[in-house]
Amino acid sequence: MISGSSMEVMKDEWLDRDTEVQISRLKRIDWDFFNYKSRDPGYILHWYPARIIGAIPSTLIGLLSKDDDVVLDPFCGTGTNLVEAARAGRPSLGYDISHIAVLISEIRLQILRAPKSLLSIDNPVDKFLFEPLFSKDKPQPNEVREKIDKAMSYGDYLDRWFSLDQLSETAFLFLLCERCNDTIQRKFFSVVLSHCLRQVVGYANMGWSHLSDNVFPKKISRFSVAESFKSKLEKIRLEIQAYEKLKTTPMTVETHVFNEDSCRLIEETARGTVDIVITSPPYPGTCDYALTQRLSLPWFSIDPDSELSIEIGSRHYRHRGDFLETYKRKIGQCFMGVARRLKKYGKLAVVFPRFNDERDRVIDQLISVIEERGFKQFYTGIRNIHRTKRGLHWNIGTAVQQQIIAVFLKIE
Ligand SMILES: C[S@@+](CC[C@H](N)C(=O)[O-])C[C@H]1O[C@@H](n2cnc3c(N)ncnc32)[C@H](O)[C@@H]1O
Description:
Layout: H1 6-9, H2 17-26, H3 55-64, E1 71-73, H4 80-87, E2 92-95, H5 99-113, H6 115-119, H7 124-130, H8 141-154, H9 158-161, H10 164-178, H11 183-196, H12 199-203, H13 208-213, H14 225-246, E3 255-258, E4 274-279, H15 289-292, H16 304-308, H17 323-341, E5 342-354, H18 357-371, E6 375-384, E7 402-410
Parallel strand pairs: 1-2, 1-4, 2-3, 4-5
Antiparallel strand pairs: 5-7, 6-7
The protein binds S-adenosylmethionine.
The site of S-adenosylmethionine (SAM) has 21 residues, from loops.
């Protein structure tokens, strides 16, 4: 529980010596990480909402796991926990239903593992953007039209957000991405391009919630998708280059990211057991992960509603009478799968956003749902998010002011 009652449960007989040592170390951590700066070159790849800072998983992994322990994140989002596991030399498994989140995770991990694979083209901007314009193989106007039609068949609202010129530019660039022979480079370019499409919201002076709710801009902005893509590619290239120069040892650990529903974890025992789980699950009613990507998903031939229908706790359904009950049932199902995959006495660390006292009741309920699946909470940490840093977090109405770090032991 958030109120600090973890101190009482600490005395219970189920606490072993190792866990007691871990508790005393956890208690010494200043979770605010006020001066933290990410050292992960892939952090700037994409604006995907509700990412956590790497300092939290890197601290948890360091304190709660050993070399070669396998880390699982059932809601991996952009892969922050997987990245920190890889940096600490731990193999990992991640799951997320968001196609874009999984792409981001894969590329962030690839940058760590083999930055050269993304720098092998001397100047990606020239090679990717300008040379094709003069090549015989460049996408032809009929292909561009077909690509727009196809994207519109998955998202018929696109022309309310973009002008015809912007749609043509976007279609042209996605067609170029698809022509990359190298799979990783293809994914890399398309994820960067997908990041750039959100610019339309900023230019129209609208917030992200307008995007999720599909509230159209009054006037279509005049930003250039290609210019935005070019400058983002350049920024990322510099980050990767700097990282490549500093990197001393190659990162060889195995990581697997699955674009799957975590409710199905329970069926997937074939993928083996894991030693530790670190995750930040979707929090009920705060975000629509699928719908925030509505400007990108149609270009990948995905209807955002198909992801929305699997997403747990989406804000889109917050007014339904059974919203919280459905959320608890589904999240409980996921943690049942987590319990099945985690070794006995393995640790589970869950990071929740904290908005205000009113919503703390939801965190308490969530902790109960997890404990009912065979876990015992033994530690609560609190991260105060400095007001200048709250912008990094997805917020509707009120900003996330704190994060709760709850650590559990699997006891059954
Ligand atoms: C708080 S975010 C995780 C952010 C992540 N820690 C990071 O740093 O990027 C929660 C994630 O849960 C995912 N999610 C929601 N429902 C899911 C489901 N049924 N199965 C798998 N992932 C799901 C969302 O797509 C979202 O990416």
